[in-house]
Write a sequence for this structure.
């Protein structure tokens, strides 16, 4: 009986610890989404770079940071000289309205990663047609690194249903520039 109780107690502890790690998976995604919401809110606020140095080191995995820094050597726009992207990677474009109906949902952990899905409307100010009222979903793959939850990849789906990995896109930028 004593061994059974100990095994049950251990199982409960592992379950609670896993839940705590999974719950923390939302934190880096929330930080990225808060910045993205602020960026598209309008007004005179400064653009928040979701990949600036302190955010990179705080919110993203070592592998993601390595791929971002390699791609950042090839800025998309010569005038800005900073980002390898010439669009907002979260909204999937250069134009968006203030984001509406944002939800962030935590999925079950799998293979050492937890998927966190952000869903929002990004085009409601462009019209009432269904295409402008549609939801956009962005999937964040979050893992634990050095005791904290960090984003390892950002997955987007285009209008044709094709899924894209931001890490793959960064590797493609580097490969293209090296040819």
């Amino acid at each position: 009986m004593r061994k059974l109780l100990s095994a049950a107690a251990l199982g409960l502890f592992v379950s609670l610890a896993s839940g705590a790690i999974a719950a923390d998976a939302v934190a880096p995604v929330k930080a990225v989404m808060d910045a993205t919401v602020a960026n598209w809110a309008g007004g005179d606020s400064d653009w928040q770079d979701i990949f600036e140095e302190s955010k990179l080191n705080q919110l993203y995995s070592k592998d993601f940071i390595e791929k971002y820094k390699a791609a950042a050597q090839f800025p998309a726009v010569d005038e800005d000289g900073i980002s390898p992207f010439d669009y907002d990677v979260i909204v999937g474009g250069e134009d968006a309205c203030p984001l509406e109906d944002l939800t962030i949902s935590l999925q079950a952990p799998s293979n050492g990663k937890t998927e966190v899905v952000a869903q929002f409307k990004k085009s409601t100010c462009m019209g009432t047609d269904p295409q402008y009222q549609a939801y956009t979903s962005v999937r964040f793959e979050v893992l634990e690194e050095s005791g904290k939850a960090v984003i390892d990849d950002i997955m987007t789906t285009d209008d044709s249903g094709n899924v894209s990995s931001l890490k793959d896109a960064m590797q493609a930028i580097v490969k293209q520039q090296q040819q």
Residues 1-20 have pLDDT under 50 and may be disordered. The CA atoms of residues 87 and 94 lie 5 Å apart. Strands lie at 100-106, 113-121, 135-145, 148-157, 163-165.
